[in-house]
Fold this sequence. Notes:
This protein is an all-alpha fold. It has 2 domains: about 1-75; about 100-140. It is about 95% helix and about 0% strand. The protein contains 3 helices and no strands. It has helices spanning about 1-60, 60-95, 100-140. The longest helix has about 55 residues, at about 1-60. It starts with a helix and ends with a helix. This is Olfactomedin 3. Keywords: Coiled coil.
Amino acid sequence: MSQSIEVLNLRTQRDFQYVLKMETQMKGLKAKFRQIEDDRKTLMTKHFQELKEKMDELLPLIPVLEQYKTDAKLITQFKEEIRNLSAVLTGIQEEIGAYDYEELHQRVLSLETRLRDCMKKLIDSKNNKKKESKRKRKRQ
């Protein structure tokens, strides 16, 4: 029995030494975990701050991007209007293409002559009315 107690005592001492050794390792491991956790928090804070600074730097781009979107829409509208105008101009060109230059020139001269004649008649008519008006006043 004393031998059993002796063996038990030796085993207990060995286990106790093992537990002490493990306790030291556990404390070291716990310290490393704390350090890692602190480093992680520090890194997260640092990365968050860097990210926030980048966002602050990019913040002025928002109005520029909004203006860009507005300009892009306006350009799209202009393109559509240009397409419509091109179609109209093509139609006019086809219509004008039916006449040669000389014929168009003659038509323009004819229209100018008619316009001058109309203006002359208008002026003559106006002058005649003035003369009649003067005559009526003289009679009265």
